[in-house]
Amino acid sequence: MSCNEKCGFSACSCLGVVISLIFGTLVAVLFALNLIPLINTVVWIVFGLAVLILLLLVLGVFLGAVTLSGALRKCLCKNALCLLTGVIGTIISAIVALSIVLNPALILVVIFTGILAFFFALMTIGLIAFIKCIICMLCSRLMNDSD
């Protein structure tokens, strides 16, 4: 089994969106049952991670424009839309969650928590797909150079 056969995964695939929906629903149910302690701290951490990934994505775009290697550029073209959707959705959802009182008795707050978890999962899956794409591109290039 070669590395090229595994390079087809994308965060925007049905699998990525379904996993994000399941994760968002699970987190919303757990939050509604008051089983997630320190939710404000979790929201701050998620917000910080989203901002960090956004900065790394912008840096990757600049590096992809000036490097000779096509791996970064191709993987950005393939995964940047889903990764950017996850990051921007996470940042906006986290700002909304940080601006309200996170009381699990209110259904709207539970919905916002589920939306935040959905975008966080989409962002994480997008980041994993992006890193996997770069590794597969580099792996296939090394395997082709050794032939």
Pick out its properties.
147 residues; mainly alpha; 4 helices; 0% strand; disordered N terminus
Low-confidence stretches at least 5 residues in length (pLDDT < 50)? 1-5
Number of strands: 0
Strand content: under 5%
Discrete helix count: 4
The structural class is mainly alpha
State the shape: elongated
String of helices and strands: HHHH
Mean pLDDT: 88
Helix fraction? over 70%
Give the radius of gyration: 18 Å
Distance between the amino and carboxyl termini: 16 Å
Q: Sketch the major β-sheet.
A: none
Tell me what you see in this structure.
Residues 1-5 have low confidence and may be disordered. Helix content is 80%, strand content 0%. It is elongated and about 60 Å long. The chain has 147 residues and is an all-alpha fold. Helix 2 packs antiparallel against helix 3. The chain has helices at 14-32, 39-66, 70-99, 107-146.
Task: Note the topology.
Elements: H1 14-32, H2 39-66, H3 70-99, H4 107-146
Describe this structure in a few short sentences:
The protein is mainly alpha-helical and 147 residues long. It is built from 4 helices and no strands. Helices cover 80% and strands 0% of the residues.
